């Protein structure tokens, strides 16, 4: 037999940390008191109503909801509670044992089974713990007598006399089941919580819970594999018995592990004391350095003070000598009494020089020493920052890594990072960044604290490079810094616009999304009908679409992406005075002779490029970026073909009359040329065949949260 007192740990509710009271079995197979389940759900509902405030989590002194549950409240609120009126509402419950959000279904707490077996074991434990405390009869007149038996049908305890009175021979009550004195009254038959009038007689192997025949016929277990209760009882009992026998047979191994763990506990305590001593020694060294610097500062101030006081004292004595009948003036007055000319001249000459100096110093009075000690002010701002960052590095915390694929630089900077661990145990992250400047000798990192795994930064300079790094904190312990990642900001402020669905928009060949941020060319039946009129060797027409906002002056940048399956896309800028020519171009059908990037030497390509093209465009398609064939471009056609970047950007400088085409992921210029900026300049796109273009979305402070919700 296993001693009842040795299993107390298994009888403690993980929510209230007390012995179970009417425990319920959660779908994750963990047990929680019935009262605790209701209190936790009530606390979470209050958290939803109050916006997840910490004060609402303290509504019940019985349950202990950790601070980390606040983030889980928000996650539950986003993922499971918000549903429309047509969808059955399901209740999510945060299990205090496995820390997972458990779906309790539509019935919530009412759909959970009461664990009568665990309740019986708890009652046995209580009886063993209070063996000296008797259970009194519920029907005796005061003073009550000690009970001798309890009726499971009446849910009451009786002494011998009261039991005979309330259960007379020859009546129905005489057939009631009675046991020894107890306070744990359990029903004879386990009823289904979903169909309260039906007893459970089957076991669902998928959900691992008892069910009734109605659950199997038309309930939530209709398509599940079930077995009879007797078969499940026999199977589970055999498995449990075998596992218990195996554990008992490994008792020596368990004891060895316990001995090893006890040694590890002692070793941990010793290492903890050693770590404290090492930390104390480190801080003592800092104290010693500070004390030395303090003493040196005091000595320097004291020396300077003595020198200044001596100078000021000497100057004061000199000025006191200028008073009548005192010092230099008194001596001069005595010299004036000399009547012998030769003796007077001999003495007065030197005296007159001294009197003149005293007169000059009186006219231009200046203290002999400064009274301020500004030169001795200790600037500790930098040292304070360093000491503020002083923390303990732990090998237990994995180093986060900045995810360059998910990070973006556009109108703002979105920095995302990941941790190697599957579960995040960090309390907070610290993200630091600084601008790369070769002229600056010292680097000043800007710091921001983040609760999640991404941060949107604003206020960065255009056309600059920044270094980013991140570390994670758990309490006072932090991980080492992640590897620095360098990212480049756009060469100019970001220009926002949408596709224009009115000016020249061909809705037969092009399709816009509702937000007008994506356009797709549809190579369907209308395009085939149009191509029927074309001659051999010609392609189909280009379908143009422009932005809905123009640029008059300044330098601007915008970015977009082209789908990998796109056959032909042209991008660039067009002046307002040539938009009509763009949509009504006489060369409506492009052919190899008129295509500037075709590679065919027709002899008129340059002329066509200069005079006939109404806008400045570059060609994209088939995962390639084609540099236009200009006199300055490489003569080899293969060297003018580059891989198509994932994200492209265009930088228009109206003041200089130049346009550049960029790899927006690395902010690298691929091609730049002159452009006529005489009028309003509009972004322009041309698509042919199957192709799609998506405008880059501007970043906002809630950008990452919005996409996480999606």
UniProtKB/TrEMBL annotation:
The gene is Trim36. The keyword Cytoplasm applies. It is found in: Cytoplasm, Cytoskeleton. One of its GO terms (molecular function) is ubiquitin-protein transferase activity. InterPro entries: B30.2/SPRY (IPR001870), B30.2/SPRY_sf (IPR043136), Bbox_C (IPR003649), ConA-like_dom_sf (IPR013320), COS_domain (IPR017903), E3_ligase_FN3/SPRY (IPR050617), FN3_dom (IPR003961), FN3_sf (IPR036116). Its main location: cytoplasm. PANTHER family: E3 UBIQUITIN-PROTEIN LIGASE TRIM36, E3 UBIQUITIN-PROTEIN LIGASE TRIM36-RELATED. Residues 13-64 form the RING-type domain. One of its GO terms (biological process) is acrosome reaction. Residues 399-492 form the Fibronectin type-III domain. Belongs to the TRIM/RBCC family. The lineage of its organism: Eukaryota, Metazoa, Chordata, Craniata, Vertebrata. Pfam families: ANCHR-like_BBOX, COS, zf-B_box, zf-RING_UBOX. This is TRI36 ligase. Residues 187-229 form the B box-type domain. Residues 336-393 form the COS domain. Keywords: Coiled coil, Cytoplasm, Cytoskeleton, Ligase, Metal-binding, Microtubule, Repeat, Transferase, Ubl conjugation pathway, Zinc, Zinc-finger. It comes from Elachura formosa (spotted wren-babbler). It comes from the Eukaryota. PROSITE patterns: B302_SPRY, COS, FN3, ZF_BBOX, ZF_RING_1, ZF_RING_2.
